[in-house]
Amino acid sequence: MLWSFNFTHDANRSRDEIKAAVDAVIEDLRTRKVTPEELARARTKMRSSLYSTIDGTGRIGLIDLLAVYALFDNDPNKVNTLEDGFAKVTPELIQKTAQEYLRPTNRSIYVIDPGAAQPAAPAAQQGGK
Fold it and tell me: What pLDDT does 125 receive?
């Protein structure tokens, strides 16, 4: 799975400041177990997101989930057990997962500077020889 997020920030914040703030949060996950209260809140948010997906416009989200489980697991009924998986997440599992996958060496940072000058295309791409 790919985990991604993005930040749009004011000019008075540098990339390094944003990166340092993100790194601090990730390092906290890697070194400290989440509290029962944090885990309960996360489960509530996951459940809310699931219901939003399932009950969204035209129930397309539910149709998509049914199709995924039918295609990959040959069991569209698995959609009815999604919430069961939320209970299996523990503070220890979160920390172990963060330590394994949320390493600074296991990421890519992609920066888009709006309005930045585009590099000149090589002559071969411009139709020249």
Answer: 61
